[in-house]
Amino acid sequence: METERIGPPLLAGERETLRAFLDFHRATLAMKCAGLTDEELRRQSSPPSTLSLLGLVRHMAEVERTWFRRVINGEDIPLVWSETGDFQEAYDATKADRSEAFEAWQREVEHARRIEREAESLDVSAYNARWEENVSLRLVMLHMMHEYARHNGHADFLREAIDGSVGV
């Protein structure tokens, strides 16, 4: 999988800036996973934790799906890897493979991009049942950047433990 990571614009409107920063974080996760085998991607950080790079990709597919499709778009769809709505199930990638995880993640990212592009403004809002509150697309995009930034920090440590690679 070829990944191009483009730095966010230094001077742009709010929506373009949010979109670019979110894509920057998405590309960072992909780059952290680049060049690794399925076995390396499944390597757990520190058992009994099931955290792995592949688990992070699966988790982020669930997060993209939930915030953009289930919340903002109001789609009545289940999570990808959990019938009970437990986001933690995606972290367990012991039997997962790269193609399944990355295809699901890329599919959800494309849905998210489409939903964001088609939204009238960042003020579009929808009900988040978990929080029992309405949330704006602006909040969702900021929350997604927070999710990626946090998990990209995990990905830094995971990748370094696999082959010593740092940076990105």
Provide structural commentary.
- With 168 residues, the chain is mainly α.
- Helices cover 55% and strands 5% of the residues.
- The chain contains five helices and two strands.
- It has a two-stranded antiparallel sheet with strand order 1-2.
- A hairpin with a 4-residue loop joins strand 1 (125-128) and strand 2 (133-136).
- Helix 1 runs parallel beside helix 5 (137-163) and helix 3 packs antiparallel against helix 5.
- The longest helix has 27 residues, at 137-163.
- The two termini are 16 Å apart.
Quick overview of this protein structure:
The chain has 168 residues and is mainly α.
The 3D shape can be described as: globular
Strand order of the largest sheet: 1-2
Structural class category? mainly alpha
Count of alpha/pi helices:
5
Helix % is 55-70%
In the predicted model, the low-confidence regions spanning at least 5 consecutive residues are none
What is the number of E strands?
2
Ends apart, CA distance between termini = 16 Å
Mean pLDDT over the residues: 92
Rg, rounded, reads 16 Å
Task: Summarize the main sheet.
Answer: 2 strands, antiparallel
Write the element-wise H/E pattern from the N-terminal end onward: HHHHEEH
Strand share of the residues? Answer: under 5%
